[in-house]
Amino acid sequence: MSDRYIDFANSDIGRRLVGAVGLPTPARLERWQAGRLRPIEGSLLVGGGPLAAKVAELAPKLTDSAFAFACEGTNLPAWTAGLGPKIKAVVYDASHIADIGELKQLREFFQPLIKSLDNSAHLLVLGRVPEGLEPAAHIAQKAIEGFTRSLTKELRNGGVLQLLQLDADSELEGALRFFLSPKSTYVDGQVLRLTACATQVTDWTRPLAGKKALVTGAARGIGAAIAETLARDGADVILLDVPQAKADLDALAARLGGRTVDLDICAADAAQQLIAALPDGIDVVVHNAGITRDKTLVNMTPEYWDSVLAVNLDAPQRLTQALFDSGTLKDNGRVILLSSTSGIAGNRGQTNYAASKAGLIGLAQAYGPKLAERGASINAVAPGFIETHMTAQMPFALREAGRRMNALGQGGLPQDVAEAVAWLAQPGSGAVNGQVLRVCGQSVVGA
Length: 447
Ligand SMILES: NC(=O)c1ccc[n+]([C@@H]2O[C@H](COP(=O)([O-])OP(=O)(O)OC[C@H]3O[C@@H](n4cnc5c(N)ncnc54)[C@H](O)[C@@H]3O)[C@@H](O)[C@H]2O)c1
Fold this sequence. Notes:
13 strands; 447 residues; Rossmann fold
């Protein structure tokens, strides 16, 4: 469903009217177009501590225009506030900040450049995991979380900002390519931890080349967008949905050159059927199939409760366990679970759904260490308000509230969720494990 308010607010007459009555104007967000090569089309600004030099080395792979600001040890030309070009992407290394006094470096770096940001600018702060640091550094690194989550709410024109907490060997290139490009246009205000990763992408034009990827609930909506995006990135896709969705599933598989599995993931023998359907093993598993059966708890029937828990949580857990135990999930495999911001913040009328979606975050946390023993990873992606068939059915007032109550003032598209899944599916994304990445425009729900 299209968001007509964005079109109106960005038209000539709409801009004047909306401005006159003080309503916000949601930006037109940029999105990745197939065939694009450069993550950043515009200028990259690098600054801060020692990791700035590492980012500067990667800069030619990201853009043909990079500058340094408030940092030493790079060969990049210096950028001057007010004189330099508009900035499309920023990486600031704050990993060296080790006490409260040094936090002012954040203000000193970001304040001069805020007014020089281009539309849909992507900003990244690099920090360290606070736990385990000595107390002064722990406090300072924790403070950076509050700084980034607040600054991003002040960005205009579709700007987004994330904090990546790293150690010395953390895999960085894949994360920079995702977080500095329009692939992460609807990801905002996130804090993610990255470690080293033994496997790497070899061809950035097809980062999933040679990988087999299974997507459940692939016949429509977000699942179909995930399948398309994984196929775009070079994966052989295997599309699963209930037998009733066969026609849509077959049509999508024909278009993407993939194959299908007609299966209800709650069937008693679903695990055996799935393992039999994947004789060559699987590299990427996306548990996307999900249902809602909303009622306040007072009116919640056992059927509503049981069906949501069965599809959304029990089946992903059982199938992941079976694929792992049977060796069907290959070494260095990637498992991605579709959670929801409802599972983080809770939502009236969704005790069953929110329980299932929070449980998926628990599944990622609980299975992460086990999968890591084989080089594999498991993470949850939590979409906020996404423009789909599901959200189009919502009453008007609820739908408008869901759309606007985030830092970007609009809903996301299925492609935005799919891009996050595709990044977590990459070989180098073993650097992220047992975590949850929200794709919600920094929704006020579940912040
Ligand atoms: N749309 C949103 O705004 C939003 C927000 C947060 C999270 N999510 C989550 O994203 C995922 C996809 O959402 P969507 O809006 O595209 O949903 P959708 O209803 O459009 O699609 C879900 C798909 O799952 C399939 N499915 C359902 N039960 C199944 C079963 N037992 N076995 C196999 N397949 C089954 C359906 O046939 C359907 O094709 C869901 O897990 C949902 O909870 C969506």
